[in-house]
Description:
Elements: H1 8-17, H2 27-30, H3 40-53, H4 55-68, H5 74-88, H6 92-109, H7 111-116, E1 124-125, E2 128-129, E3 136-137, E4 140-141, H8 142-159, H9 163-183, H10 188-207
Helix pairs in contact: 3-9, 4-9, 5-8
Amino acid sequence: MDWGNVTAEDLIDALREVDWSTPPRPLSEFFSRFTLPRSHSKWNSRLKCNLYYYRTNYFIMIIFILGMGFLRRPLAIVAASVTALSIALLNDSFAGTFSEKVTRTVRKFSPHLAAKMRPPLTPVIRGRPAAKRAIYICGQPRWMFVLMSSSASFFLWFASCGLLSVLWALAIGLLATILHASFRMPNMKARLNTFREEFRTVWRNYSDL
């Protein structure tokens, strides 16, 4: 897979649609084989490949850095957790699993309310969906939950008096992610993994025809 031809929009779509439950890569693999990229094109390809392959490690690293910066502020730790939830809900797989678990929990106490939390049916034309499948959480559009959780996290950050600190922690986390993705040499596992994901995408598109 030629990562040099992958646009930032394609990378974001791939991160949004990939399975959220992928375990992080081993630390022995994550912190090994650092080299300087030979050219800008090599750096661009390496950055995109590593961001996709080590996505779970980067997510955990950023949340860990945010948490370490607020050990003395319990409310800020809650804010970091809500922020992580807001980001995770942007992933299709996580949003579906989250909605299913919440609906299942509500069903135990109120089956009537759980029935109202079902997502609306997607119209089908000639055996295919009329448009790209929209993501619903508990019967409501996903953007509503993302907006509510983002607003709640912003309020918690403001109440904890740690907005400036979180900006520094977030900047450090993002900088560490970019530096690692820039200097970590993609291994054979990463290349094979991206080829496998590319095949799955092609096969999924073929099966939808």
